[in-house]
Amino acid sequence: METFFAQLANGASTGALYGLLALALVFIFRATDVVNFAQGEMAMFSTYLGWSISRPLSLSWIPFLGVDRHLNLLTWRPEVFGLPLYLGSENDGLTRLGYLVVLVVTVAIAFVMGALIERLLIRPSEGKNLLNAVIVTLGIFAFLNSLANFRYGPVPQTYPAPFRGDAVDFGLFKMSQHSLFALVVAAVLMIAVYVFFQRTKLGLGVRAAALNPSASQLMGINTGRMLTLGWALAAAIGCVAGMLIAPALSGISPNLMFGILLYGFAAAVLGGLDSALGAVVGGIAVGVGQSMVVQYVGSQWSDIIAFGLIIAILMVRPTGLFGAPAVKKV
Amino acid sequence: MHQTAHYRDGVERFVPSPSEAVLLAALVLFCWKLYGGTENDAVAGLSSVVVVVVAWVVGVSLRAALNDMRWWLLLGFLVALIVPWLGANTFQVGVMSQVCVFALLIFGLNVVTGYTGQISLGHGALVGISAYIIAILSSNYGWNVFAAMTVGISVTTAFGFVLGIPALRLAGPYLAIATLAAALIFPPLLKLDTFEDYTGGIQGLHETRLSPPGPIESFLKEHAPSDAYQNDFQRRKFAEESYLYYISLAAGVVGLVTLWNLGRSRFGRAFVAVRDSEVAATSMGINVPLYKVTAFGISALYAGFAGAAFFLVIAFVAPESFDLVNLSINPLAYLVIGGLATTGGPVVGAFGYMWVPRVINKIATVSGDFDKLQGAMTGLLLIVVMTRLPQGVWGGVRRVNALSWQRLAGDSWAWAFQRSPLFWAGLALAAVVVVLIAQFIGTVWAVFALALLIVAPHDVWSGAGDVLRRLNPGWKRNASIQADVT
């Protein structure tokens, strides 16, 4: 029984990470109707940016120009209001405040990156065959993957976690602090996305722009800006997901995210592509199911059963567990 | 099929259209290369001229009979027939065989995604099922290869009908993910211990390649190009590869012709009707579920043939051969790049699928500049083609094909002389920036910047122009540019 609960906790925390990525997919799907194959790589790339920021200046502050190698900034340790951002002199030592600063900065960068990707690369394909935009996201996928391989190399890099203390004992099971943190962040982001889409005027605008671009344009919504916003926010959520996934696994590497993205797809579809709640619940379901199968059936069955179940569930509920049935006006 | 917009009469009949001029120029280059290696330049030049004049006369006299699109395909077919003699080594012939294999797969995807509008990411599994059944039957049970193929293709087609059942309930991205799940289940299933005796587990199954029958082998060996294949071993290799190439070419051509006819048949029209509006199709008396499942079945038939050809050409199957990206996602991507719901598009797509990574690899090795960024270049190419040719490459070919000299001249005049000075200033600035990047950061980054210039929508740049215009109200927005933007 103990292993059961341990696996449950384990699966739930991995699942929360799938759910976060699924949340980003849901965001883009609701904003532009596009299934974004590049989501995982966008998350990976922004996590790498965060990784380079999180290291002391001497290592790689400015990720592309390589200027950092020529600057002699080995001894500089930035502080905020006298509080240190780095622990001691180790490369991967960030204080909690430092982690927060890095998180905020990286999410901001990811936001801009998402907006630029939409504005410069996706926009020309909008309003055409839906597959065109999907192929463009495949192109972005290949581009970012190769760029990360080129800049950071294939070797996984350790990524700092904000909470590294002992595992919390819940009696029935133990959970590492990082997993708990990931669960909390997933829940908070899920609620935030739900509130954004259902309770704010901006979210309503984004939904309207996706549902009927021409009508919402007539209603005075700047549809182009809504689409850009959708991509930017999705990239930001994906960035948070990446920054939580990297320390939970063996670190960040260029090919880390594609496998996780597939589970993210599964989670998003399971929950219903247009439901924020569904994304996180679907993610946790996929994560728990996966760890149960690994524990009780055998690891080689995990993909077979996970994806087989997804097909089965879709056959019963064609728009996922929480998705609204598709209503099409003729 | 598509008819070109312009019919010529009088003297104009003897003037090649722009697209025909491109074809003739390609022919000149081709002849030059063919003769240039062995003869001196004068002979090469003279024979090029003769060939081109003959081609021109034949082309002009046959133009009425063959509409212009078929020209491209016919020429392609003629070139395809002599491919083994064009390649420098057997590796290239092997790649061309694989072009035919993947063309079959992409034809199948075209039926289901192009004509019927159902996105399938599960076709890798179908190809795998076919190839594996043939491999198991022929290597474990000693069946005749062609008998095994019959069974493999039939079973795959049946599986295709099964894969079509989700299409009745699911739409759009949900169907895409369901089929993707099917493709993801397939490789781990093969690796299971339970089936290892049959499937060979992770190692997969090896099979000896089909060797050509005696007379064909000796004919091919005798006629192998002597400069590239000098000893007997190389000539036997050539005969082997060419034989497999002709088998897969035959399969590919049959696939192409059937696809062409399918597109124009009752089935093809029904598929397109289902894609465009299910409600309208139903009200026209089309049994939508039946046609949806049939589309998957027909498409699986192609995939089954692709699997059979895959087994013949590669003679090795392993779970990793049928991974998601290589056999399910990339073929679909290259189908869209080639042109959805067209006949020529899948052919172009199959070429791109096999050759784009190899050509980029070649360029990278030669220039040594972006060795580690090959994936980025491929991705960028996907983005550029998809953005600038939304109908795919074949759509672009059609557009070029429908172009007359007058139209071309008019368009380029309009493009060049109806722009504001601001446009030219911007272009010059962009050129300077690209050159500076190439000079100081690296050629690769300059290529990236150039791609961004090509891809990014006009209004981004004209938005920048608007900012400048606000600073200098004297610059007026040009009417034709305005139309261009909206």
Using only C-alpha atoms, the radius of gyration of chain B works out to 26 Å
Distance between the termini of chain B: 31 Å
Strand content of chain B: under 5%
CATH topology of the largest domain in chain B: ABC transporter involved in vitamin B12 uptake, BtuC
Q: How many beta strands in the DSSP annotation of chain A?
A: 4
Q: How helix-rich are the residues of chain A, as a percent range?
A: 55-70%
| The first-level CATH class name of the largest domain in chain B | Mainly Alpha
Query: What sort of overall outline of chain A do the alpha carbons produce when their principal axes are compared?
Result: globular
Report the biggest beta sheet of chain B as strand number plus sense, adding barrel if it closes.
Answer: 2 strands, antiparallel
What series of H and E elements makes up the topology of chain A? Answer: HHHEEHHEEHHHHHHH
What is the string of SSEs of chain B from the N terminus onward? HHHHHHHHHEHHHHHEHHHHHHHHH
The first-to-last residue Cα distance of chain A is 54 Å
User: Low-confidence spans of chain B: pLDDT under 50, at least 5 residues?
Assistant: 1-5, 479-486
Q: What portion of residues of chain A belong to β-strands?
A: under 5%
Q: Give the tally of structural domains of chain A.
A: 1
Mean of residue pLDDT values of chain A = 82
- Strands of chain B, count: 2
Structural class of chain B, by secondary structure, is mainly alpha
Largest sheet of chain A: 2 strands, antiparallel
Named at the architecture level, the CATH assignment of the largest domain in chain B is Orthogonal Bundle
Taking all Cα atoms into account, the compactness measure Rg of chain A is 20 Å
